[in-house]
Description:
Elements: H1 3-10, E1 14-17, H2 23-27, E2 40-43, H3 47-60, E3 64-66, E4 81-84, E5 91-94, E6 99-103, H4 108-115, E7 120-121, H5 132-137, H6 145-148, E8 155-161, E9 167-170, H7 176-182, E10 191-198, E11 200-201, E12 205-213, H8 217-230, E13 235-243, E14 258-267, H9 270-276, H10 278-281, E15 288-289, E16 292-293, E17 312-319, H11 324-330, E18 340-345, E19 367-374, H12 381-394, H13 420-433
Bound molecules: flavin-adenine dinucleotide.
Amino acid sequence: MTIGNDLRNAVRGRVLVSGEEGFEQARRPWNLAVEQPVMAVVEAEDADDVAALAGFAHLAGLTVAAQPSGHGATGDVEGVILLRTGRLDEVDVRPDQRVARVGAGVKWGEVLAAASPHGLTGLAGSSPAPSVVGYTLGGGLSWFGRKYGFAADSVRAFDVVDAEGVRSRVSADSDAELFWALRGGGGDYALVTAVEFDLYPAPHLYGGRVMWPVERAPEVLAAFREITAEAPEELTAWFDLLKFPAIPALPEFLRGLAAVTVDVTFLGEGGEAQALLRRLDKIDGAIMDTRGPLPVSELGSICAEPTDPGPSTFRGELLTSLDDAVAAALLSEPIDPLVSVQVRHLGGALARPAADGGACGHLDEPYLLGMVGSLAVPELAPALKERQDAIAGLLVSHTSGRKPYNYLGGGEKATAAFPGDVLARLRDVKRARDPRGVFRSNYPVLD
Ligand SMILES: Cc1cc2nc3c(=O)[nH]c(=O)nc-3n(C[C@H](O)[C@H](O)[C@H](O)COP(=O)(O)OP(=O)(O)OC[C@H]3O[C@@H](n4cnc5c(N)ncnc54)[C@H](O)[C@@H]3O)c2cc1C
């Protein structure tokens, strides 16, 4: 018997094994720069099918890596069975209880679309495309994190499958240690089949992007620093240096443009937001301003990040300040060949330990740096890494060395995401719950 036959006997979902038609497409992650040398791909039918797969892997001495989308793919999947969860597509928004329950294949955009008509939001990030479960297992840094903390700390319960293929519901009451680990410690301890989490009121949401030619960057960064120094927790602002590629898919005015933007959301009425953002209006020469009342369902339009798969490289750093030296370093040279150098304002609830919070902990650092490069031209890889390293090098005395789990990049380890005591506790959970290594997350805690 081949592994393909064994797997088809074990699960009801589609199985694809190396050499079979459709395998190459099925193993491809969202980040097309990442090669995935997996043994097989299983598209589970439902939660019972996920349990059947875990039970099979346990008995066969094999490893399963869950990957709804591949936004966080690292390539550390040699010889594993890749689990696709797209058919676990339940979206159940209960406005009266302000809670949502979603399956492990659901993307943030689907939740926002379902919550929006009720004037509610979940703690989504910049893109509608990552899965709710993958994002939340890694902590989940949302537009609304300053007000409500990490997305992981808004979870009420997970439905999981353990390393022997047994299903259960995990909450603070039923299994406090696993519940803690799943809230920000990554996907190493169980396969999640569904998650239930709090929704928050957003009857009035204001947001959008203001863009200027990059020559305005010094004024824009100065305004961003002033705005974020005083911002209430309802206001979130991100600063971005962008270099758009000269491709026909973009509107003509953006092709090849070097630009600076401030992206904002405000949980409240537009008039209040406009007053808080007045400094931006004093900067001449804006070439785009999309700010205005925004339905929750349109949150992803602010940054308009690509939702289709593409090849990219990423590096993140937590900034301990955004003082004159950091500002000067950020503006010292054009960002080319990178496409984006972004500074997100953190603080607020993200900086406070949550009551009974998860492994995501809290972030003392007030700003988060993210550097993105496109690998559409693969030969650019060394130059992109050099530029990321050069910017990180200029900022080395202003970065903490820690990175949020969701902000780890290729080649980095989970050790960079957690303080020592948290990592030790996560490793204990991993050894106790999955001693034979049936599960492999993208950044394994034991590496
Ligand atoms: C364009 C873009 C924008 C982003 N914006 C943000 C942002 O604003 N805030 C933020 O915090 N992060 C952001 N991220 C990072 C993103 O949240 C992480 O990459 C996250 O891991 C993506 O989850 P996924 O399930 O979509 O990806 P995948 O690569 O499919 O999964 C990532 C990992 O999650 C685990 N996992 C997923 N599903 C399961 C499951 N059912 N059971 C067990 N483990 C599972 C696995 O370990 C898997 O390797 C962004 C990433 C991209 C590419």
